[in-house]
Write a structure and sequence with these properties.
- This protein is mainly alpha-helical.
- It has one domain.
- It has helices spanning about 5-15, 25-55, 60-80, 90-95.
- The longest helix is centred in the middle third of the chain and has 33 residues, at about 25-55.
Length: about 100
């Protein structure tokens, strides 16, 4: 759920769009914002979980978690985000 501050920030970003009153522009912006959210989630899950397990010495959890995360989150990102934004693939490969 979004907080009031996050909703105000989204509204501010929409207001700053070149064609902020056109539904198509707002829909495109919201789609891009959703896609960025998936990428941020993917990055956080892949890297933060792995770092946490490794820093605590829990190698077994690292191995199991890494295998499962690569299957689930990776599929979401590739199926939802990339078909419409394939030009971002180079950035994704850098953070992967």
């Amino acid at each position: 759920m979004l907080s009031g501050a996050e909703l105000r920030e989204i509204q501010k970003q929409i207001d700053n769009l070149p064609h902020s009153t056109e539904p198509r522009s707002v829909a495109e912006f919201m789609t891009l914002r959703r896609d960025v959210m998936f990428l941020e989630f993917d990055t956080a899950v892949r890297h933060c979980m792995a770092d946490t397990f490794l820093s605590t010495g829990n190698i077994q959890a690292y191995k199991v978690g890494s295998a499962r995360v690569k299957c689930g989150v990776h599929v979401i990102v590739l199926d939802i985000v990339w078909p419409t934004h394939s030009s971002l693939l180079a950035i994704y490969r850098l953070i992967k």
